[in-house]
Amino acid sequence: AQKVTQAQTEISVVEKEDVTLDCVYETRDTTYYLFWYKQPPSGELVFLIRRNSFDEQNEISGRYSWNFQKSTSSFNFTITASQVVDSAVYFCALGPSGGSYIPTFGRGTSLIVHP
Amino acid sequence: ETGVTQTPRHLVMGMTNKKSLKCEQHLGHNAMYWYKQSAKKPLELMFVYNFKEQTENNSVPSRFSPECPNSSHLFLHLHTLQPEDSALYLCASRDEAIGSNYGYTFGSGTRLTVV
């Protein structure tokens, strides 16, 4: 069985602070994918990143960075110099490799960035 | 706009009404999904369509009836709903071809309130 745990239900920060959203997963698959999605108040979930389990290189995209640690089954997401527009619910998801999988989503972390 | 369009954005219906939710994508994706998002609950997968064929029905009550007339359109027909069915209903599509990023593209959702 697959499981994704986002232990932080809600995080509140002040603009320009750095913030890390935690994601811990469980799977028996040897190869799998990990994802992060952002759900702003408008409702749609926006795909942010996909990470293959065999690629542990950290990734940076602008103010966003992801730290994949297979040894601790974690795939944490850091926003540097947060902005009000980063306020959203962020979901981590896990899926087995292959095209027809159905991902398992975490419960989401609500990030509130205050001006 | 994500490329997946859902209508209506908001819907209020009585328990005896019949209504339909519509989802449309012109991204060339070959799989479409209905998810239910309730407050304080994880995303719940409802139905999966691959190449217009339903491949998954996660024990969804028969008062929800999906329809996929072609690979670009997906409907969710609703009848005799209960107040606990009030939620955000999200449509998603994905390209399941090898080489794609396997990430979902979500619509903005339909906020359904059953009174």
Walk me through the structure.
The complex is a heterodimer of chains A (115) and B (115). Chain A has 115 residues and is mostly beta strands. In chain A, 0% of the residues lie in helices and 53% in strands. Chain A is built from no helices and twelve strands. Chain A has strands at residues 3-5, 10-14, 19-21, 24-26, 32-39, 46-52, 59-61, 64-69, 74-79, 88-96, 104-105, 109-114. In chain A, the strands form three sheets. In chain A, strands 2, 5, 6, 10, 11 and 12 form a six-stranded mixed beta sheet that branches. Chain A has a four-stranded antiparallel beta sheet with strand order 3-9-8-7, with no helix packed on it. Chain A has a two-stranded antiparallel ribbon with strand order 1-4. Chain A starts with a strand and ends with a strand. In chain B, strand 5 and strand 6 form a beta hairpin. In chain B, 0% of the residues lie in helices and 56% in strands. In chain B, strands 2, 4, 5, 6, 9, 10 and 11 form a seven-stranded mixed beta sheet that branches. Chain B has strands at 4-7, 10-13, 18-25, 31-37, 44-50, 53-57, 64-70, 73-79, 87-94, 105-106, 110-114. With 115 residues, chain B is mainly beta. The termini of chain B are far apart. The model of chain B has no long low-confidence stretch (mean pLDDT 89). The interface between A and B is medium-sized, with 21 and 28 residues.
* Quaternary structure: heterodimer
Class based on secondary structure composition and strand pairing of chain A: mainly beta
The largest β sheet of chain A comes out as: 6 strands, mixed
Q: What's the order of the H and E elements of chain A?
A: EEEEEEEEEEEE
Separation, N- and C-terminal Cα atoms of chain B: 30 Å
Number of helices of chain B: 0
Task: Name the beta content range of chain A.
Answer: over 45%
Query: What is the element string of chain B, with H for helices and E for strands?
Result: EEEEEEEEEEE
Radius of gyration of chain B: 14 Å
Q: What is the strand tally of chain A?
A: 12
Give the number of helices of chain A: 0
Inertia-based shape of chain A: globular
What's the story with the biggest beta sheet of chain B? 7 strands, mixed
Dominant shape of chain B: globular
Rg over alpha carbons of chain A: 14 Å
Output mean pLDDT of chain A: 91
The residue fraction in helices of chain B comes out at under 10%
Largest interface, chains and sizes: A-B, 21 and 28 residues
Q: pLDDT below 50 for ≥5 consecutive residues: which ranges of chain B?
A: none
Give the termini distance of chain A in whole angstroms: 41 Å
